[in-house]
Design goal:
about 475 residues, mainly alpha
């Protein structure tokens, strides 16, 4: 028995299998594509206005309030306790969704769902604390792929059960409760990590992998430092908290780590390349999450679920497949992203804006579905490019830090959008007008990066012309 425990503790296969099982069951939620029809149907009997203006905004607020403390606590307690908390949050969410009634109860559902969403960082960070850097690329692929598979299976299963087996939304939510409960049970079998990225370092040389080990990169010629614009300052990690002199201020270990993290952020954002890609990441992710949060409400407005066939699950399955396909396609495209990246951000953001305008102006549900598919595919394409453009320049720790901070900024922007556009205490706009606002929002993003890309291209051409002229003179 002791030999078995020792073998399990040293193997990367066992924790990878368990965390993938956890990821599959926690993502396999077939009822999620039918949340709005469930809330506005006979089970909960809520109005579209209550769902849009009073219930859904709570998720954004709770997610924002919990994201930063959960990000730090996750590392401090070494991931597993937060994975257990995620399981509890999911179970409470679906218990309330099944058996509670009224606006206040559904707001509680959104709060616990926000908690579950905030704890997702533990799923993606856990595996790096229990496997060696040699296996980072492989386990990253497994962990991300299994969630895409689970999301697709959930959407297809939900659609088949609703359309062919005439399963009620209530029983669909019961299946989801069983799935997230299995994920919670899987969490108990995860080995407890002995280290973490920031607060519990064991071996600096092992936990600071080169970028090509920490995050899989795709054909980038980018620089190897954060400070590609100021070559004198390296982006390799500065002294870790454990490496600093014993008399360094502040003495408190937690404060010392926080100070180091703030220095890392300052160093990385002083790079203009990383700043611009991060700016797009935050702005676009805010708009993307906002659209995802309210797209079912728009579909229900265009084709009310009580009088029309609902194909939400099928559309989500196709959207997930298209998003995966476009993300994979990026790896086979040979483009100088340093030159053309911002132009791509501008063009595809304009396509996102066009898709949102289509969803606003059309009354046809199929055109609405098509607009959503185009919108999600374009975003997944761009976020993949942005991810490796940022990751290629950074160590695993700095990438995780920038990922968390960019998402926090995105959530702050999304909260502003929610307060102003959606919340009943703000403008409380109807769902169709909201999508007009979101289309205008992506138009602004497209304009920013199209103007920036034109300026960059002209500057480079002028510089090359100047250099060519000087060489001819000599």
């Amino acid at each position: 028995m002791d030999c078995w425990k020792e073998a399990v503790g040293r193997s990367w296969i066992y924790p990878t299998l368990i965390i993938c099982a956890n990821g599959f069951f926690s993502t396999m939620r077939p009822s999620e594509s039918f949340l709005t029809p469930y809330l506005t149907g006979p089970d909960k009997n809520l109005t579209i206005e209550e769902v849009t203006n009073h219930i859904f905004p709570v998720w954004t607020y709770s997610y924002l309030a919990l994201l930063f403390p959960v990000f730090l606590i996750t590392d401090y307690v070494r991931y597993k306790p937060v994975l257990l908390l995620q399981g509890v949050s999911f179970i409470v969410t679906w218990l309330l969704l099944l058996f509670a009634h009224g606006v206040a109860a559904m707001q509680a559902v959104e709060f616990f769902y926000g908690m579950a969403t905030a704890t997702e960082v533990a799923y993606y960070a856990y595996i790096y604390s229990v496997v060696s850097t040699d296996h980072y690329q492989r386990v990253t692929s497994y962990c991300r792929s299994i969630t895409l598979v689970a999301a697709t299976v959930a959407a297809v299963l939900g659609q088949l059960l609703v359309s062919l087996a005439d399963v009620s939304y209530f029983h669909l939510n019961a299946i989801t409760l069983a799935s997230v409960s299995l994920a919670f049970l899987c969490s108990f079998f995860l080995p407890m990590p002995q280290k973490s990225m920031f607060f519990h370092r064991k071996d600096v040389s092992e936990t600071l992998p080169a970028p090509d080990k920490g995050v899989p990169t795709v054909g980038s010629d980018g620089p190897s430092s954060c400070q590609e614009d100021e070559g004198s300052v390296s982006a390799d990690r500065g002294p870790t908290p454990e490496q600093q002199p014993d008399n360094a201020e502040p003495h408190n270990h937690v404060l010392r780590v926080l100070v180091q993290l703030s220095k890392d952020l300052r160093d990385c954002y002083s790079s203009r390349k990383l700043l611009y890609w991060s700016l797009w990441w935050a702005l676009a992710t805010a708009g993307f999450n906002q659209v995802l949060n309210y797209i079912q409400v728009l579909w229900d407005f265009r084709a009310p679920s009580h009088s029309s066939a609902v194909y939400n699950g099928a559309v989500e399955a196709i959207a997930t497949f298209l998003g995966s396909a476009t993300s994979m396609a990026v790896g086979y495209v040979k483009v100088n992203w340093d030159l053309s990246g911002e132009l791509a951000l501008g063009i595809f953001s304009a396509m996102d804006a066009g898709s949102l305008f289509l969803m606003h102006f059309t009354d046809n549900i199929w055109a609405c579905y098509a607009g959503y598919l185009a919108f999600k595919a374009c975003y997944m394409l761009l976020i993949t490019i942005a991810t490796f453009q940022i990751a290629v320049s950074l160590s695993m720790e700095r990438y995780a830090l920038m990922f968390g901070f960019n998402n926090f900024v995105a959530l702050a922007i999304q909260t502003i959008l929610t307060v102003v556009v959606v919340d009943s205490k703000g403008l409380g706009l109807d769902i169709s007008t909201q999508f007009l606002i979101y289309g205008s929002y992506f138009t602004v993003i497209a304009g920013i990066f199209l103007i920036r890309s034109i300026y960059t291209i002209i500057s480079i051409k002028c510089r090359n012309t100047s250099v060519a002229g000087e060489s001819i003179d000599h």
